[in-house]
Design a protein that fits this description.
Blueprint lengths: L8 H20 L3 H25 L20 H13 L2 H16 L5 H27 L4
Helix pairs in contact: 1-2, 1-3, 1-5, 2-3, 4-5
Length: 143
Amino acid sequence: MSSSRTFRPAEQVLQAVATAAWLAVPDYTSRPLTRRTARAVVLAAATGAAVLLEWRAPAEQESDEPGEPGAETEVRPVVAAAAIAAGTIGSVGGRRATRAAARRLEARGVRRPWTVVGLGTGAVTLALSAAQARWQHRAAPRA
């Protein structure tokens, strides 16, 4: 999922869903080991879905000769996993802000504050990904 190509809508939705699921885990389990296991499952499922999306996607660059670059569809699961993990884990400051938002929601009586924060973050992820795809589409050279 390099910056040289645009995300397909299914990839954008996958990122948003993985982000929301990753952040919502504390609402559904209280044990640290179970949280880690649930997050590993979210990451594995998102990576598997990203690999399937990449595998089923048509080659973006078609070439006439088999030896040229772009002749084969390359599946990059490590890149997909890194992109999803980077999008969901965030920085230390991001985690602090997320924790503060969840605590504030909990103090206001929200039953599942981490789910609300996850859904909000997932929506922002989807919006930013769509904006990036639109910007790349406009900046792409016309043939």
